[in-house]
Specification:
The protein has helices at 18-32, 46-50, 58-65, 95-98, 120-135, 148-156, 158-161, 174-177, 202-205, 212-228, 243-253, 256-261, 272-283, 293-301, 313-322, 334-349, 352-383; strands at residues 6-12, 39-45, 69-79, 105-113, 139-143, 165-166, 191-196, 232-237, 263-265, 287-290, 306-310, 328-330. It has 388 residues and is α/β, with parallel strands linked by helices. The strands form 2 sheets. A 6-stranded parallel β-sheet has the order 2-1-3-4-5-6, sandwiched between helices. A 6-stranded parallel β-sheet has the order 9-8-7-10-11-12, with helices on both faces. The longest helix is centred in the C-terminal third of the chain and has 32 residues, at 352-383. 45% of the residues are buried.
Amino acid sequence: MAGETLSVLHVASFKGNTGDLLNHIVFRPWFDRLVPRAVSWHELEIRGYYRRHWKFDESFFDLVNSHDLLVIGGGNFFELWPQRSRSGTSVDLIVEDFEKIRIPVFFNSLGVDAGQGISPNAYAEFPRLIAHLTLSETTLVSVRNDGAIQQVTDLCGEDAAIQVIDLPDAAFFLRDVVTTRESFVSNDRGTIVGVNLACDMPDVRYARGDSNNFLDAIASAITLVCQFVPDAQFRMFAHVFSDYAILADLLDRLPDTIRREAVEVYGCAPNNRGALATAAGYADCSMVIGTRFHSNVVPIGHGVPSVGLDTYPQVRRLFNDLGLSDWCIDGHDTENLAESLVATTRSILESLDSAGTRVANVRQILGVRRAAAAKALQDWLSTNHIAD
């Protein structure tokens, strides 16, 4: 078998989200190194299911079984809120469906997300599904470091959770794949602070779904940072196009001098080229302030300190996992948000060397965890005669 090509059906999101794209860019070369033969990747866009262009039906199982391996993710596909999903997750497959799949299945570093609530189907089916998957020799479940293991423990019990592999998000390791650190250099480029804000899921992110108090606090914090860092430049990042809406609202609140002289709005394109350009922009920052999961993952992976704005539970759980909880600010506490954000930003910028060392140590620990996951994955591939 070593000389044969391994045919992999990869179900995930491949367009329109910078974080997902960067995850795949890193994951595939890493996976390819674990098998002794060439790998042929075939993509099935999961948003096609969301848009009802295809279904988890017999045609899906026929497609799956025409390949050697099914990979699902990475991505936040163990969301637990979908009401119309039989499994209660974004991957609408139940135990009985896996009995129709005749090839090995690898769940790649999925998020387990109860941030938008848990549907009745998820309460009933998710524990049953995880129990089945973790007992099967032909399936391997790995979850990312956004508190997913604890979520599995809470919902499915410790016996199931200990069978789930801890696989840090691949985008932490982008520097291993993309070695050039693009720089937008000029001698007076100043201190670059990356900023990412998100306005999706407003009822979860903001009190009564209203982001006005949040944005007022962020604008106040940026204005105050400019007072003690006169050369500060704020680089605004969008991961999906809706991010531009809230960034525009933020710009409206900034003083004209800052808006004209200290702000750069970064581009966003729904492809690998655009995602890599965004990653390069993060790598060039002195520090980052981010609301999205990957707006913190990518800079930290490049050794850049990042302050998480906790407007969604996964960000807080990510920073807890990394041992950086003091760099995570409660975005719901708008009364104290500006003060807390300015204090943390100032602390990092005034001690960038020690902050960088702290991030480097985090990345080293993540590398050890990833190596352990690679060993578990390789053993599983061998058991299923894929790594022979």
